[in-house]
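Hi Y.,

Following your request, here is the sequence exactly as I used it, all 205 residues.
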Amino acid sequence: MFTGLIEEIGVAESVNTLSGARKFRIGAKRIMEDLKEDDSVAVNGVCLTVFGVKNGSFEATAVEETLRRTTLTDLRPGNRLNLERALKVGSRLGGHWVQGHVDGIGRLVSRKNQGTGLLLTVEIPEKLAPFVVEKGSIAIHGVSLTVAEIRKTRVSVAVIPHTLEKTVLSDLPPGSAVNIETDLLAKYLYKWKARPDNSHLVFPE
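Below is the corresponding structure, written out as tokens. Let me know if you'd prefer a different format.
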């Protein structure tokens, strides 16, 4: 479990294709302080298990299912990456509950200056739209953000200067593919409401 508050920007040092999988070596600094094998790290919002730690970098593997659902299939050496270690029990939850289980790939439609920050608009898969609400939470490339507006499948989020400085969102031009994880509670509530014995329940739009 993660919070969507990025700890640092790492760099993909190497990418190797295996049979139905890809192995990554990722350079980092801050998160290496106590990182060890079998720990979980969110890489651009994708939960990966660490299997090797050495000299300021760690190794992780993404299997076919993960590659199919995320942008890690396009990862290249030199790419900058949002990194976050798993949440510790007792830590403050400054963002929102982020599992690191990406729901789908979105596409950055536009980025507009808004004061000192940016307004980003992302096109998300239609199947994810029911789980996104105005003023609710969404994780884009692992970054916890508040939904400013949603119009059908287009989601807009306001990004403050601090977040732009601390994440790779500042690197992304329009057209970029981004990992999308919708709100965990929204998904469970949607499924619960869909049960036949709950069909009488009505929720406000």
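The domain at 8-85 is CATH 2.40.30.20 (Elongation Factor Tu (Ef-tu); domain 3).

Thanks again,
Q.
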